[in-house]
Write a structure and sequence with these properties.
Blueprint: H1 10-19, H2 23-48, H3 61-64, E1 68-70, E2 105-107, E3 148-149, H4 156-166, E4 169-171, E5 175-179, E6 190-192, E7 199-203, E8 210-211, E9 217-224, E10 235-237, E11 245-252, E12 259-261, E13 270-278, E14 291-293, E15 304-310, E16 317-318, E17 323-328, E18 331-332, E19 335-336, E20 342-347, E21 350-351, E22 356-359, E23 362-367, E24 370-371, E25 374-377, E26 382-385, E27 390-391, E28 395-397
């Protein structure tokens, strides 16, 4: 009687193959399991009905090709109505007295519900911007967004004051502006022109042109003093008001000082950059200084900074009781020091035209400067340093102090 071996079941064969490490058998078993799972899922789907279609991912090409939203650069702005991929329609003209904001358009998710239109401020194409980000790009936003515009012409003082009552940011396009009187500027006012050669201020009145108050800023404009016709100073800084800024500004031709810090505390943290300043009828070798700083003992730091100053060869500054004045990368004319001058620092500049200068005060540094005047360090002065500077007419130390450096060898 012959023994007939029993035929193992399919499951037994798969188990044996797994134990033997048969990769082929293991793979077949795995594929069979996947097939059974997919069949089960299909059965459940047929019983449950159709699944809802998922919305496209925020960064999908379909979404980026869809709606575009315009976002205002002004505070409190909100997205406008999606234009569903329509090409830019151009900037919307500004309303009277207001410049366009120029804020960029950015991609935003499609909104199923209708959205009420918002005033468009720009149609800039931002293809490639991340979808869903409604924040304007700070690097491309118009820095004068929200400004009120004042145009050229007469009666500028009244019109400027009216604009500043609406917005502390005022723009002035190219042209000539005639002031009928001194304007009253509020704290934190910012007035932006189109450039020193383009936005020009004139006047028809006598006296000081304007007081520059706390944290006021003037940019990209020229103020003509017309010293042959009118007296008075240009910009006056007074009291304890500080943090004023002049950026790419010219203050020229005043019969009085072009810029006057009329108290020892005025203009703390004042900054002037790309400043052209020259007084009317100023002899390059004389003492009609364009900038004046009140004299008097000042033991506290009142930093005032000047960068890229041009005086057109005329006298620059009466330094008075200043404490921490910084002048850098500039070409300036004569200066006058007093016993109350402290912490004056002139660097990487040229000092022109003055025949001779007496150095009074304390903590004076003149570094990397070509010096035209003959220098005398006066008795009582100390901590005076001329390191790295070149003397056209030599220097003499009569101070008796032992801490002065950088003088030429005798």
């Amino acid at each position: 009687m012959h023994h007939v071996p029993s035929v193992p079941s399919r499951e037994a064969r798969a188990a044996a193959q797994f134990r033997r490490g048969d990769r082929s058998g293991g793979r077949h078993g795995f594929l069979a399991g996947v097939a059974l799972t997919l069949a089960a899922v299909a059965t459940v789907a047929a019983l449950a009905g159709p699944f809802p279609v998922a919305s496209p991912a925020p960064d999908s090409p379909a979404l980026l090709a869809g709606a575009r939203t315009t976002v205002s650069g002004a505070a409190g702005s909100h997205p406008g109505t999606p234009d569903h991929g329509a090409p830019p329609a151009g900037d919307v003209p500004s309303t009277a007295g207001t410049s366009p904001s120029g804020a960029p358009a950015v991609a935003a998710p499609v909104t199923p519900a209708p959205v009420a239109p918002a005033p468009a401020t720009s149609s800039a194409d931002t293809t490639g911007d991340p979808a869903g980000d409604e924040r304007p790009d700070p690097s491309s936003s118009d820095p004068t967004a929200g400004a009120v515009e004042v145009g050229p012409g007469g009666g500028t003082a009244a019109r400027l004051e009216q604009a500043l009552a609406t917005s502390l940011l005022v723009t002035m396009p190219p042209g000539e502006y005639v002031f009928e009187r001194a304007p009253v500027l509020p704290d934190n006012a910012r007035i932006v022109g189109a450039g020193k050669a383009l936005t020009k201020w004139f006047r028809t009145f006598d006296g000081d042109f304007a007081v520059l108050p706390e944290s006021a800023t003037l940019e990209n404009l020229a103020i003509q003093g017309q010293g042959a016709q009118f007296g008075g100073r240009g910009l006056v800084l007074t009291g304890d008001d500080g943090r004023q800024v002049l950026d790419n500004v010219a203050v020229l031709g005043f019969e009085g000082y072009c810029i006057d810090f009329e108290t020892i505390h005025a203009g703390s943290q004042f900054r002037a950059e790309k400043l052209d300043v020259a007084r009317y009828n100023a002899d390059p070798t004389g003492d009609r200084y364009a900038v004046h700083m009140a004299d008097g003992f000042q033991n506290s730091a009142v930093p005032r900074s000047f960068f890229q100053v041009e005086t057109q060869g005329s006298p620059f500054a009466y330094l008075g009781g200043s404490n921490d004045v910084y002048v850098t990368a500039s070409t300036v004319g004569g200066m006058q020091f007093t016993e109350n001058t402290r912490g004056f620092h002139l660097g990487v500049s040229r000092w022109l035209n003055q025949p001779a200068v007496e150095i009074h005060g304390h903590g004076i540094t003149v570094t990397g400067v070509g010096i035209r005047p003959a220098v005398t360090i006066m008795p009582g002065a100390d901590d005076v340093h001329f390191d790295g500077s070149y003397f056209n007419a030599g220097a003499v130390d009569r101070s008796g102090a032992g801490n002065n450096t950088g003088l030429p060898a005798r």
